[in-house]
Specification:
Elements lengths: L1 E5 L17 H13 L7 E5 L8 H11 L6 E4 L6 H7 L15 E3 L5 E4 L10 E2 L2 H12 L6 E4 L10 H4 L3 E2 L1 H9 L4 E6 L6 E5 L2 E5 L6 E2 L11 E2 L4 E7 L4 E7 L10 E2 L2 E2 L2
Length: 271
């Protein structure tokens, strides 16, 4: 099974540029086209939050248009920039968006790897939270299929990165999440967004990983007291390949980097 992960799309109404700089709509179009050219094609695409910038209906209308060329199953969840009700209105055919009355969280059992999405949003705030209600739902949902290899989809990563301004809007309730995940060894990975960079950390006996954005990236600055800056580093997405025993992650960089070249010189193989 091949899972394609995109995250932190930050689509704005009218195709306006994020922060007056980033053409998020155009960059998502480039990403969707690149996914469409993949061989083998992904079995599913998951989008792990901050789908739009202000959680507005007109932003989601544009998002739906931009994602329409994807012809494989698409699973969405909210980040801190999203609006749960507007997301549900924009994708009425995605019944799983309404599986929980209070949060956008659900389990998908249609694929070789089970997908469990949990909602970390705190409306009106940048940080995330996993309250007792959400953690109890996750524990119960994971317990329902203990033998199914599972990835947990969430927006806010459950670990500190050293990027100070992002750690300030991290995840409350990460300790409770660790206790839940540790009880369920079938969890192969926690797939996260929010940080706009490829980052990985060991967590509760598994790995929590973060996907880069197909638009702008958070500046990599581990010095104390850094500003909340972004950079236009090469954008990207991730492919998570399940071979029946191991989940392997590849980070793909968007852009035209020229043709592929063989490891040869003058017809001779170069070791």
């Amino acid at each position: 099974m091949l899972i394609c992960q995109i995250t932190d799309l930050h689509i704005k109404a009218g195709r306006r540029r994020a922060y007056g700089v980033v053409d998020t709509a155009g960059m998502l179009e480039t990403c969707v086209a690149a996914i469409g050219r993949l061989h083998p094609r992904p079995d599913v695409v998951v989008a792990t939050g901050d789908l739009v910038d202000y959680g507005r209906d007109d932003e989601y209308a544009l998002l739906r248009e931009l994602l329409a060329p994807l012809d494989m199953p698409l699973y969405l969840l909210p980040g801190n920039h999203d609006g749960r009700d507007a997301l549900r209105r924009a994708f009425p055919g995605h019944r799983w968006l309404r599986a929980d009355a209070d949060f956008v969280q659900y389990a998908i059992d249609d694929h070789p790897v089970r997908l469990v999405a949990i909602d970390t949003q705190v409306p009106g705030h940048g940080h995330g939270e996993l309250c007792p209600q959400r953690l109890e739902w996750l524990d119960r949902t994971l317990a329902a299929r203990p033998d199914a290899p599972t990835v947990v989809l969430m927006h806010h990563p459950p670990f500190a990165t050293g990027i100070g301004h992002m750690d300030l809007i991290g995840l409350a309730g990460a300790d409770g999440l660790a206790r839940v995940v540790a009880r369920h060894p079938q969890v192969e990975r926690l797939l996260c967004g929010h940080l706009h960079r490829p980052i990985h950390a060991r967590f509760a006996g598994t790995v929590a990983s973060v996907c880069p954005s197909p638009a702008h990236q958070v500046a990599l600055d581990l010095a104390p007291g850094t500003r909340d800056d972004f950079v236009l580093e090469p954008p990207g997405y991730q492919l998570h390949r399940w071979d029946g025993a191991t989940l392997v992650t590849h980070t793909a960089v968007l852009g035209d980097w020229g043709p592929r070249h063989p490891f040869r010189e003058d017809g001779r193989l170069i070791d």
